[in-house]
Amino acid sequence: MRIDCPLCGPRDRREFTYQGDALALDRPDPEAGFGVWNDYLHNRDNPAGPTRELWYHDSGCTAWLVVTRDTVTHEVHRVELARDVKEAGK
Amino acid sequence: MRLPSGGLIDRSHPIRFSYDGHSYQGVQGDTLASALIANGLKTVARSFKYHRPRGIMTAGSEEPNALVTLGHGAGQEPNLRATTLELYEGLAARSQNCWPSVNFDLLALNDLAAPFFGAGFYYKTFMWPRAFWEMLYEPAIRRAAGLGALSGLPDEDRYERAFAHCDLLVIGAGPAGLMAALEAARAGADVILADEDSRMGGRLNADLTEVDGRPGPDWAADVAADLAQMDNVRCMSRTTVTGAYDHGTFSAVERVAMHLPHPGDAPREAFWRIVAKRAVLATGALERPVAFQNNDRPGIMMAGAVRSYLNRYAVAPGRSVAVFGNNDSAHATARALIDHGIHVAALIDSRPGVQTDLDVPLYHGQVCGSEGRKGLEAISIATASGIEKVQADCLAVSGGWNPSLHLTCHMNGRPQWDESTAAFHPRPGMVPGLEPVGAANGVFTTADALAQGRKAAQAALTDLGLKPANIPLPKAEDGAYDITPLWSVPGRGRAWLDFQNDVTVKDVKLAAQESYRSVEHMKRYTTQGMAPDQGKNSNMGALAVLADATGRSIPETGTTTYRAPYTPTTLGAIAAGARGKGFAPERFTTSHAASEEAPMVEAGLWYRPSYFPKPGESYWRESCDREVGYVRNAVGICDVSTLGKIDIQGQDAGEFLDFVYTNMFSTLKVGRTRYGLMLREDGHVMDDGTTARLGEHHYLMTTTTAAAGQVMRHLAFVHQCLRPALDVQFISVTEQWAQFAVAGPKSRELLNSLLDHDITGETFSFMGCGDVSLGGVSARLFRISFSGEHAYEIAVPARYGESLFRLLRARAETLGGGAYGMEALNVLRIEKGFITHSEIHGRVTAFDVGLQGMMSKKKDFVGKTASERPGLMDPDRERLVGLKPTGPVKQLTAGAHLFNLGEDAVRQNDQGYITSVGFSPTLGHFLGLGFLRNGPDRIGEEIRMVDHVRGIETTAEVCHPVFFDPQGGRARD
């Protein structure tokens, strides 16, 4: 598997660490209640198809990336800097 | 028998080799198989299950029969295919799975009992008693059945791993592959051309097909030479591309030195990871056999292989050869035999009405049996007029050709059935960027192969934005491929499908009859296709028989899954470089060389001194107790550089730290250090450590050794994913600074003997920090303590680490102290109740370790909300306590569990467990830290400790976790 890091270019999967679903970017308000926090911390979808994931380029530029890829075809549709995604969301 | 002329061999270069202890001679260019044929050997192996004599069947990596063992001891390598082993001076091969010899094998008795040994025999027979299966049946069966044996010793051979990148990877160097590589190379693309053979050209070398008006091997050699001298091309012969993976990644094994009598420094094999923007699959096709009674007799081989042996190696597999087929390959073999002056005893074509212009006896029918004692002597032919017998010592068989499309299926693709060629063809797009061409794509003429190779390369070039070179297409043979499917010839007796696993037509029919109708079930029930050849010779035949037995068509029946690797791959090659010390990098501190007497303990990748033995000390505890005494009574020196050090700067550095730590850091004064606790977002403790404020916008965080990487990743996550607006930058400086603990009542005295300017209790009070210098070298000094004593940590640029350590150690020794290792460090911190990752192991909260007071109520921080969940604040949770033994057994053990007195030591009664223990020379008894249900409210209680693993049991008193100097005055004085 290869990931096209926006800063470093296409690199082998072994340079990256996988961290799980990109919804980790959407940290709830401290007062949002345990239900919302429970979803944020523990509940994940397991889609057959497109999914947004967080990857950390630890053997490269140390950027956190949001990788949109397909769990069926393994196609990588989009790789963005998590920082950009987070800032665009505000 | 060697032919008097011809062949792509060097007759002027004889090579001596041995097989089963007998000496033979071959020539340069031979494989072991061709050399064995040249020396007239027929039976070269015994079959897997029935120990039937078997001969060479193919001329390539798909060979099911001729497997041999090379080497002895640790260098022994079994199951090597004689058909791909290049002959070299002194090669010594042995036959396998036979005793006492390949020609007389006692276990051939199995063959007489064959009627009992059909598919599923083991499952049906060895059923009772159950325990006997593992103890008795399986070992006996495994001894009787099998292929080559492993030595059981570590493989001492050298292997390498390598990486390559290219625009176009061409897999296979037959006409299609050579054409694709040349087109792409001329257009300026970076090309890798890989072929498993030692010689480029593929079938051209076996068939001598004319290309561009010249013999095929000459054309191939010229193109290969052309490519080899181009800078943008890497020609890799002896390289099998074994797997196709995501995003243009391919695995390949290169046999670098396996063909050399004296490999020198060259690795035996290299395991390649090749990343290609585009790939062309030009792997050709494999010829398939036809099943008929006793079709496994030595002397019966594939028609295409016979042409290889005649044309490429100039050896004749027989003196009187019969040829049998359902397609034109049989006719080509008959023609080649005649060209080489070999008698063709019969040409048997199963297609009605097909004629030949060759001067050979032509039979319209099917071979239905074979005879012969040590090898083939005669065949039976079923024709319209009855059964005829013909004398022959070799039978060349062709049941048609299967495209070698394996790699196109490695990413879960399935091939599609093509009626006109009676074969599975690759479905387009099964591996993105990989284009099958030529015979691998079901196109069986040389002219079409050349055209497809060029076209695929041009498409790839256009995709990559390169201009095709449009090299001219050479002229070559062009004709239709005519085949009428024939899978098995009806008749009595055993007709073999899978030669390597001894599976017959009857076995497959039995599987269908017993409801193993799915092709995957049939495979597992009969073991067809599960041998090292992975069914390359047998899958299609078995599939067709299964389809017939279940009344379905072949496409309805489907194929089994193709998986990597394409050919058997040695584990040594895959693991290249990762054995022993190569398994993981070693990180050494700057004081490593100055600590040579110390046994090392691994901490992550780091190696740290366990203790520093002195002459006369025979037991590690003696050294450890002495080193603890240094720190409690004088001064000790310890390298603590392995702790993670993260330099954090920026306008918002304080705000950032307030968010990642449970306690406040923005309020910390410059020149001060504070202990911090970090949680995961789920409310459990992630790590702890001290952070110093070096300047208004400059902090230095320390992490535990074990969690340094994890904390760095976490900080990056928090910054980039949660708080990107914060103005903060950080970088690991762990390796840039060497840091040493100077601990003990005489620590200040020691430092003042070295520092350029003396320090005092005022300039460096407890938890103070700042710049100092020694010998003109700038250093950082932190007054922090992990031992509870008056202590410092001094940090210098790493290049001064070793000399500073030697200096500190020598000065400490003059003051009655010295260096201490991890064992003493551990005892010192247990005496003080300080936690490490033994305690904060991922399942504990700040509440559990008694640090809930460090969780600020004034701010949000990572883990705050989740840590407030009621279940995580329950007093009845297992919480940190100290323990000391009270019973007759004075020992505590880490990992032991705690139970109430008088209760059974079973899981239901579990009250907690011990995480750290050490013998305290200061207090004169063992100490333990552990987690106990509602522990802090049970101080003074007596509890039962049971270590089920080590068989140790004692009673212990529950204590406050701080055993020594609970007021902490010694660190502050």
Secondary structure: elements and pairs:
The complex is a heterodimer of chains A (90) and B (973).
Chain A lengths: L1 E4 L3 E4 L4 E5 L12 H9 L7 E7 L7 E7 L5 E6 H7 L2
Antiparallel strand pairs in A: 1-2, 3-4, 4-5, 5-6
Chain B lengths: L9 E10 L2 E7 L3 H7 L6 E2 L6 E2 L12 E4 L6 E5 L10 E3 L14 H4 L8 H5 L5 H14 L14 E13 L3 H12 L4 E4 L9 H4 L2 E2 L2 E2 H13 L4 E4 L2 E7 L3 E6 L14 E13 L3 E3 L12 E3 H10 L7 E6 L2 H12 L3 E7 L12 E10 L6 E6 L2 E6 L2 E5 L2 E3 L12 E3 L4 E3 L8 E3 L9 H18 L32 E3 L4 E2 H9 L5 H8 L12 H11 L4 H4 L13 H4 L12 E2 L11 E4 L2 E4 L10 H14 L2 E4 L4 E6 L3 H8 L12 E7 L5 E11 L2 E6 L4 H15 L6 E4 L4 E7 L3 H6 L16 E6 L2 E6 L8 E7 L3 H14 L3 E2 L2 H10 L32 H4 L10 E8 L11 E4 L11 E9 L4 E9 L8 E6 L4 E8 L9 H4 L1
Parallel strand pairs in B: 1-7, 8-9, 8-15, 9-12, 15-27, 17-23, 18-19, 18-23, 19-20, 30-32, 33-43
Antiparallel strand pairs in B: 1-2, 3-4, 5-6, 5-7, 10-11, 13-14, 14-15, 16-24, 20-21, 21-22, 25-26, 28-29, 31-32, 33-39, 34-37, 34-38, 35-36, 36-37, 39-42, 40-41, 41-42, 44-47, 44-49, 45-46, 45-48, 46-47, 48-49
GO molecular function (chain A): sarcosine oxidase activity
Protein name (chain A): Sarcosine oxidase subunit delta
InterPro entries (chain A): SoxD, SoxD_sf
